[in-house]
């Protein structure tokens, strides 16, 4: 039979299908280059090679059929299927394994890592077993089909046959540490919140127990107050407990339960950051300065919550919750415009209120601060500079507010309604302050100053009021007045007596109502001409006493009671802070 080569015959072997391994059909063409491993021997043997070629072709065909049919021990088809099924997983987990037995390679021993001339890598023992099944002559690569012999197996030397996972392990370690840190922070926050909630519940219960009796006492007193002067048998004394010199402070709030005062303003250092100063009511040392977040800007109002925390509004469009325990801001509510005032709900300290620069009132729940619970429109776009949470005679929650147009009352249970004015619309005066004695809404005092260019007071003003009109030194403010607003029935309030005083020409000053004795009250205001606090008896507005004077006008004035019955009055000027105990 004449000699002929595979290329001359044009014979092409059938493709090997490895669907499970490659997910498609791989065609392997065994050409002359792949099959003629020893061309020298083929040329020397001449025509006798034809029979050997036919035998090799038949053997290769048989090997492929056996490989496809699974006739290679526990390997062949099972190996390929296993590789296909686990290949993606092996790559994902970065684990080097033999594609025949799916066991990891070793750096030495029978299953050491080895390769064959085609470049595919296996465990040596798997290749030797494959050759043994083929009669120790030669076999084809299970992956590409190229032929190899025992002498073609090459040992690969490596100290560790593993793909480094250092970066992955570092990332896992970092994420675990980060997770542990976050878990600790969450547990700490939950503990603080639980403690604060418990203290709030205790304080709320005390308030609820006191509301009914206190409201009834005030109502009974006011029914006959028009015809009675305050009892002269009860005296009220103001004793100075503490005096501190503070630079840059503008707003204060008193936590009488914990005997702490918070003062807000600019730091005196370079940069003039906005800070809170935490001060003991009875110590002149140890004031703690706490830097606020940079976007907070100037604080306009502060309010102490039951349970050792405080809220404040600022020109940085924030309503913030400050923890007295951690001395840090723990929550912030975004406001659409700068906030000017704030208050906590008298019955539920979970609800907090913010009065805005555009005249709106927002209601928030401290458990969900992403957005306000309710947004309520005011009577004008003038800033709400004062807020008080109170209860009316029917036990319903109300909000008292003050803006330039006058004092208003809001119904917090009807979120669609707008507030109503407690006094008539006055185009000649600007409301600059509103004092009350929470939780009662039966007794209020609103303070006013004339509008720029407004007509002078009526020349027929009664002699009683004129006799109380203080002299006005140059640069001591404007002549304003304070009006008593009292409840006349369950559903209505009306203006009563009025007295005059020197008020600020520019500031929206704070004022306070101080209860004492048997349902009696004093009204306190920072008089501009005195540069100090003046107190009046209510409802007559008879002058009671003038407290220690300052060299600068009073910027803020706050009254607070402790659960044990202690009563305190704090007043702040640009130069100093004074704290008085009321007995």
TrEMBL record:
<dbReference type="GO" id="GO:0008270">
    <property type="term" value="F:zinc ion binding"/>
</dbReference>
<keyword id="KW-0853">WD repeat</keyword>
<dbReference type="InterPro" id="IPR036322">
    <property type="entry name" value="WD40_repeat_dom_sf"/>
</dbReference>
<dbReference type="GO" id="GO:0016604">
    <property type="term" value="C:nuclear body"/>
</dbReference>
<feature type="domain" description="RING-type">
    <location>
        <begin position="98"/>
        <end position="144"/>
    </location>
</feature>
<dbReference type="GO" id="GO:0036297">
    <property type="term" value="P:interstrand cross-link repair"/>
</dbReference>
<dbReference type="Pfam" id="PF13639">
    <property type="entry name" value="zf-RING_2"/>
</dbReference>
<dbReference type="InterPro" id="IPR001841">
    <property type="entry name" value="Znf_RING"/>
</dbReference>
<protein>
    <recommendedName>
        <fullName>RING-type E3 ubiquitin transferase</fullName>
        <ecNumber>2.3.2.27</ecNumber>
    </recommendedName>
</protein>
<dbReference type="InterPro" id="IPR037381">
    <property type="entry name" value="RFWD3"/>
</dbReference>
<dbReference type="GO" id="GO:0016567">
    <property type="term" value="P:protein ubiquitination"/>
</dbReference>
<keyword id="KW-0863">Zinc-finger</keyword>
<feature type="region of interest" description="Disordered">
    <location>
        <begin position="27"/>
        <end position="95"/>
    </location>
</feature>
<keyword id="KW-0479">Metal-binding</keyword>
<feature type="compositionally biased region" description="Acidic residues">
    <location>
        <begin position="27"/>
        <end position="63"/>
    </location>
</feature>
<dbReference type="Pfam" id="PF23419">
    <property type="entry name" value="WD40_RFWD3"/>
</dbReference>
<dbReference type="InterPro" id="IPR015943">
    <property type="entry name" value="WD40/YVTN_repeat-like_dom_sf"/>
</dbReference>
<dbReference type="GO" id="GO:0061630">
    <property type="term" value="F:ubiquitin protein ligase activity"/>
</dbReference>
<feature type="compositionally biased region" description="Low complexity">
    <location>
        <begin position="75"/>
        <end position="90"/>
    </location>
</feature>
<keyword id="KW-0862">Zinc</keyword>
<dbReference type="InterPro" id="IPR013083">
    <property type="entry name" value="Znf_RING/FYVE/PHD"/>
</dbReference>
<dbReference type="InterPro" id="IPR056527">
    <property type="entry name" value="WD40_RFWD3"/>
</dbReference>
